[in-house]
Amino acid sequence: MSRRSLKLPILLAVLMIAMLIVLTIGWVLLNVSGALQSDRYSALYWTLLTTGSVVSGLLLTGTVLYLVLSIKAINLTRRQSNFIDSVTHELKSPIASMKLYLQTLSRHQVDARQQSEFHRFMLEDLERLDRLINQMLDAGRLDAERPADSLEDVELASLLEICAAGVCAIYRVPKECVKMDIEPCAVRGHRTDLEIIFRNLIDNAVKYAGQPPLVEVRMRSEPDSSVVVQVSDNGRGIPHNLRRKIFGRFVRLGLELEREKPGTGLGLHIVRTLVRRHRGQIRVRDAQTGTGTTFEVVLKGRMKYEG
Asked: Residues 178-188: pLDDT tens digits?
C-alpha cells in the first residue's frame, strides 16, 4: 500500500475534527450568550452547554482515535504487503538459481570443477532457504510458552564465537571481520533463544556493515551481576528517528536497503521479543568510533561464570 493511501483517511479525519471544533465553539458561544441574556432559561442553557460539551468532547476523542487506528492499520497492511513481497523474493531467488544449475547439469556436459562449483552454489541456496524457514519458525514460536525446567546456565563467550563463525561462513567473509572482546560469563536462560538473539544481531551487523565489513562484539559483566553485550558495525548507521521503529514486525529500513539487502523484517522483532522474555533490555546507539550502529543487550540478574 503506497504512502498516498494515507492522505484520504488523514484528510477526512482532519476535516471531521475541524468541523467538530467549530461546532463545539459555536455551541458554547450560543449557550453562553443565551444564558447571559435570559435569566429565566439560564439553567436550561447551562445544562445544554454541559451536555453538548461532553458529547462533543467524546465525538472529538473518538474521531482522533479513529484517525490513529486507521493510520496504524494502513501501516500494518503496508508492512505485511512488503513482508509478503520480501518472502516471495527470498523464496524465488534460490529456487530459480538451483533450477538453472540443475538444468545446466542435465542438458550440458560440464567438467568436474564446474560441477563442484554448481554443487557448492546449490548448497548455499539451500542454506539460504533453510535460514528463511528457520526465521519464520522462530517468529511463529514467539508466543509459545517455555517450560521452566528448560532454563540452563549458558556460557556466552563460546555461544558468541559459534554465532560469529556461522555468520562469517554464511556471508563468506574472513573470521577476522568479526572482532571479539569478551570475558567469560554466563546467563541463565534458554540456550536456543540466546543463540537466536546474538546470531541475528551479528548477522544484521555483517549484512549492513561497510566495505570491508568490520564488526566488533564486546561483552562484560557489571557489578550488579548483569551482562552487557554490544554488537557494532561500520555501516551507514541508523537515523535516530527510526531506532524505535526497527524493532516492529515486518519493518525494514527504507527502499534502498530493501533493494540491496535480503531479509524479511522479522529479525530485530524476534530479537527484542526474546530479550524481553529474558527480562533484559536492548538499545541502539551510535558506534563508538566512526560511522555505524551499536546494538546493546543487557541481561539482568545473571551470574558471573567461574568456569
From this structure: 999 988 888 88
Q: Which long-range contacts does 252-261 make (Cβ < 8 Å, 24+ apart)?
A: 252/82, 252/86, 257/208, 258/82, 258/86, 261/207, 261/208
Q: What is the pLDDT of residues 51-80, one digit of tens each?
A: 777 877 787 788 788 778 877 777 777 766
Any bridge partners for residue 299, and if so which?
227
> Is the Cβ–Cβ distance between 13 and 63 less than 8 Å?
yes
Which three cell numbers, joined as nine digits, stand for 23? 461546532
What ranges in the chain are assigned the alpha helix state H? 7-37, 42-107, 112-140, 156-171, 191-207, 254-260, 267-277
pTM of the model: 0.64
In a domain, 304, yes or no: no
User: Where does a domain end: 30, 62, 79?
Assistant: 79
For residues 107 and 271, give the distance between their C-alpha atoms in angstroms, rounded to a whole number: 45
- Residue 219 forms beta bridges with which residues? 229
Residue with C-alpha cell 558506534? 287
* Residue 27 belongs to domain spanning: 3-79
